[in-house]
Amino acid sequence: MEAAEAVFAEKGYHDAAMDEIVRRTSVSKGGLYFHFPSKERLFFAVMDHLGRRLVRRIEERIARQERAIDRLEVALTTALELLGRRRRLAKLLLVQGYSMGNAFEQKRTEIYSGFASLIEENLDRAVAENSIRPVNTRIASYLWVGAINEVLIRWLYTGSPDPVREALPELKKILLESQRVPQDSLVGGEQS
Amino acid sequence: MEAAEAVFAEKGYHDAAMDEIVRRTSVSKGGLYFHFPSKERLFFAVMDHLGRRLVRRIEERIARQERAIDRLEVALTTALELLGRRRRLAKLLLVQGYSMGNAFEQKRTEIYSGFASLIEENLDRAVAENSIRPVNTRIASYLWVGAINEVLIRWLYTGSPDPVREALPELKKILLESQRVPQDSLVGGEQS
Amino acid sequence: MEAAEAVFAEKGYHDAAMDEIVRRTSVSKGGLYFHFPSKERLFFAVMDHLGRRLVRRIEERIARQERAIDRLEVALTTALELLGRRRRLAKLLLVQGYSMGNAFEQKRTEIYSGFASLIEENLDRAVAENSIRPVNTRIASYLWVGAINEVLIRWLYTGSPDPVREALPELKKILLESQRVPQDSLVGGEQS
Amino acid sequence: MEAAEAVFAEKGYHDAAMDEIVRRTSVSKGGLYFHFPSKERLFFAVMDHLGRRLVRRIEERIARQERAIDRLEVALTTALELLGRRRRLAKLLLVQGYSMGNAFEQKRTEIYSGFASLIEENLDRAVAENSIRPVNTRIASYLWVGAINEVLIRWLYTGSPDPVREALPELKKILLESQRVPQDSLVGGEQS
DNA sequence: GATGAATGAGCCTTCATTCAT
DNA sequence: GATGAATGAAGGCTCATTCAT
């Protein structure tokens, strides 16, 4: 039964014991292995199920919108709403194989924060210099980190896109250029 | 010796055996444990070291730039360059605790792709409808996924930012609004 | 279906899984267990069947011979012919419960060889010393080992014959004495 | 510790549990696995040890004999004495991987007996017909079975000797021809 | 009689960690 | 400080057998 979802979400893949999953079910160990040939396959089945369901729900909500840009907005909103409401689902789908309790998670946060702070700081200054439009730079910095992270992971696993040649130009375009304050009239001072 | 880095990068945290780390060193098991009280601490030490070094390098390159917006650009470029050149470093820093060899990674990619495709498709249509500026929608979709992912992971681990109330507006602003094609002449015609 | 014979022959008793036997049949698991109450009984049924058939065939061929000594010769010939032609049958009947793939079999061969070599060596010398008639000492040594082995296994399982008091004299008689070169002219010469 | 010998001898390879071997030792499970990487390797180590020791003892006793034929006799005697005195050793060395308690052993005996009886019966008649010298035909039949068995097992595992072309002539020579009653004076009746 | 999903005790093996030397 | 043999809890998985349908 897919209430194995609970154990995986609570403990992470590695610390989840088949024995515990079984204990929380009415199924026996053998019964579980009859349907899923290994712990890995069980985990994948759970992930697939949840992943597909999430996408399906988003698609349902999207369908009502006429224009693509509205659909994108709804998709974004729905994703954050759904995952933001169900912590367990989010944990399962987003951090999957992590484990080691909280220590690991803290460390990840700590390390990513090093880079995020650097970005945030410069975003703040760029806003102050009136180079880019004002935004919540903290969140923007997370966005930067997440974007870079994802692009690199893709490359790591699939070999594409090439980080520098392909991804970099696009990231620049979206993260920097389109955030620029239109400096059309370079007359007069800056609005500091 | 931090050549434990190699083992962690190759096998992931869980599948890395202390025995193998020791085997690749001149240090003995006891010796290793004298310096690092546990596998977890050893791993953290490696991560810290690498994370800090990466940030330091980026900071060095940034320092030469005057304007913050240039610094941001250099930071972005440098991050992608450095990590794009050293697969191992990237793997260690980005996918850390994952494991299960490639099966796991493939699954992650597969599941994220479901959502990414949905975004990409609608980005394509939005471009076609002339709602947003043309971009490489494939990469843009990765950016979306990464951004959402990171924002949610932060919330998961630290409790902030609130996905819907805090993150959503900013994401909309950066991912959607600032990509809009200025529809200045709303006169006449129809944008159907 | 006694095509369970195939699985037992290929994998040995322990490594043969009921599931695989079932898979190779049109019968269902329950169906198999209806006819044979346990794996052991199924195995015994197969063995019985094959053992009896082998003996029956030998008896048929023997029947045509008049003199007992010719019958013995035909029995010997037939046994080697039939088993030498059907590897699977031989494996099933002779090494039955062994398993562990080839590693085990290699080990058995290796260990028995230690003793066989010792015998072979001395048979060679005995032939050289003209004490016994020339034979293929390699094969003779196998015969020795097999004879000793079988006599001891019998004793192990049934308590008789007593290895030293009963078996030894007979083995000596057949393996040694009757192989002696008749030293009829004991006159003169020296047997060194 | 090689007191694992006890468990293997008592239960057979498959039914011997590493847990029990450990229980009977002062060593821990991990400790055992530190020295022997697997159950199989442990078993082989035990077998090797015992096999070598047996051969060494026989060689010691043999060494005192001058003539090869005497050595053969001593080897035969010693082998039967040593193994006949130590049931456990015999079981370990001779039936190795068997298991299934006694049921299996009984079956083996039963099946081999089918063939052995056939031989015994004809040996009896051959003796009665005065074709071969009188022997304990029961034991001789075991010898036949053991010899055939061993020759075939060798062929099964190593591909040689070829049962019919190579082994058969030698077996005939030793088992039949050299047992023949010299029929030099074919005069007169038989001594029935 | 047949089916095959379910059972569950049991097994081998791993591995982070310890500690006597 | 270093060594590496030893520890032992824990875990994933197998498989002969059962039994409701």
Descriptive overview:
The structure is a homotetramer of 192-residue chains. By secondary structure, chain A is mainly α. Chain A has helices at 4-15, 18-23, 29-35, 39-63, 68-85, 87-95, 101-128, 137-158, 163-176. Mean pLDDT of chain A is 89; it is low at 188-192. Chains A and B meet through α4, α5, α6, α7 and α8 of A and α4, α5, α6, α7 and α8 of B. The structure holds a DNA duplex (21 and 21 nucleotides).
Key features of this structure:
mainly alpha; 192 residues; DNA-binding; homotetramer
Please report the two chains with the greatest interface, counting residues with C-beta closer than 8 angstroms to the partner's C-beta.
A-B, 101 and 102 residues
Task: Write the H/E string of chain A, N to C.
Answer: HHHHHHHHH
The best one-word shape of chain A is: elongated
Strand content of chain A: under 5%
Number of strands of chain A: 0
Q: Sheet with the most strands of chain A?
A: none
Radius of gyration of CA atoms of chain A, rounded to a whole number: 22 Å
Please report the distance between the alpha carbons of the first and last residues of chain A: 60 Å
The overall pLDDT of chain A, averaged over residues, is 89
Structural class of chain A: mainly alpha
Roughly how much helix do the residues of chain A carry, as a percent range?
Answer: over 70%
Helix count from the secondary structure assignment of chain A: 9
Oligomeric state of this protein: homotetramer
Q: Could you name the ranges of chain A where pLDDT drops below 50 across 5 or more consecutive residues?
A: 188-192
